[in-house]
## 1
Amino acid sequence: MGGISIWQLLIIAVLVVLLFGTKKLRSLGSDLGESIKGFKKSMSDDDKKETPHQQDADFTAKSITDKPDETKPDEAKRHDKEQV
């Protein structure tokens, strides 16, 4: 009850072929296949780029006894403005 039979699917397929034509359906199918291949390739490229030891930023550990870099006050102000 309410299911689509094989005959109804065949009628729908024939109507689609008559409406769009075989050339347009063939090109549509090849375009769809190429887009899926491109998507899969980009997903696999992203997996190759990421490595487990990759970090977001390059931080070095410093202790309190380390001397801060001697910077000029003008450079420090310019650096602060760039960050804002």
## 2
Amino acid sequence: MFSNRYVRTIILSRVLLQLGIWIRNYAVLLYVTDLTHNNPVYVSLISVAEFAPIFLFGLIGGTFADRWRPKHTMVWSDLLSGLSVGAVLLAVMNGGWIALLIGSFISASLSQFSQPSAMKLYKRHVPAEQLQSVMAMSQTVVAVFTVLGPVIGTFIFMQFGITASLILTAVLFLGSSLVLSSLPRDAEDPKSGDTGGFMQELMAGLRYIGSNPSLRTLCLTFSLVGLASGLTQPLQIFIVIEQLGLEKQSLQWFVMTNGVAMLVGGVAVMGIAKKVKPQLLLTLGLFVASICTIGIGASTMIWLTTVLLAISGLFYPCIHGGIQTLIVRNTKGAFIGRVSGAITPVFMGMMVMGLFISGYLKDMSSLLTVYVVSGGLIIVGAILLLPLIVEKRRKAERGPAS
């Protein structure tokens, strides 16, 4: 897998980007909270600046990724991200901290053009039997920085301040652009059949998803997983305080346990990816996640909650790796940007909806009820996949017979 030049280069680029993003995010968070004396309105605006582009530019960026050359798009996206951080630094040096939010928004927007292009290169240059391992590796990179990113970002800001943090972020983004520029020149890509304007291609991408049963099922499953994730994410602190009777500071240890397990799970998935079909891996991950979610909501024992969080983290890469692999395998190369750009915002949108209503649901019912509802949604998502698994098995059986 690492002998593939595209895999090596893109993974190295993602490492640099992830490091830059975490350093930037924590520098912005800590700097703004210091200046505004922990004003919750301004702190919430940071999350808006980081997540809003996913809704605003996910499908748009995916459509342009299909129209433009993928290497060219990724290089320019990372280059412009680095330059935007440099511009923000100049504004901050002149006392304009609001520019930090604008810079985060611009950088997150540019990522919506870069990520679908990476999927396009994987589709074009990675053999089908290696795709699942590559997706698991990408998830592992995310897991590593979920654990280490906050620590690194906080350390750099506390030791060196906002200026050094932003300079390092810009250098990492520009370094990613430089790494990607070493890839071979883009080959000409066959068109999707709709060579008209931007809106025509965008609508053609939506019609393509609607006409593809596998993609429709994956989109619905992903939306249910996003909603389930959003319901429980803000309530983790109440598991620690109310269910386990611990101080709120103890939450960090449970989050770290889950993150380390995600890292181990990602490595394990890379090892078994060639032996297990992605639809089975995804279904297994969903069933385990649902059981663990309900168990965490019911547990009042520290050891049991810790074990369930670890098991959940181990199987989490099965979910994201399985979905991403199935998206790439079931999508024509000419549509990969639009499909990726449409399905990811669906997940994020449903997650934000879950974040919004989780507190209300807890007040109306109980913590256990919310976790049971979350686990039930994941089970429904897994059940929706069963026809897809049966159909794949039938095709596999017909293949040798014919």
## 3
Amino acid sequence: MTDAQIGLTVATPIIIVFALVLYRMGVLQRGATLSAIFSSVAIAIVLFLDR
């Protein structure tokens, strides 16, 4: 794996956890949380596979 792929595998779960924590704190609404999670996963998949 390249450095960029390792970075994606580390950063994506951090983004997901952070979005869930913000949702639990009441900062984000459900739609915004799902949007953040799906967007980060989609971006990670595209960038991970696009070499």
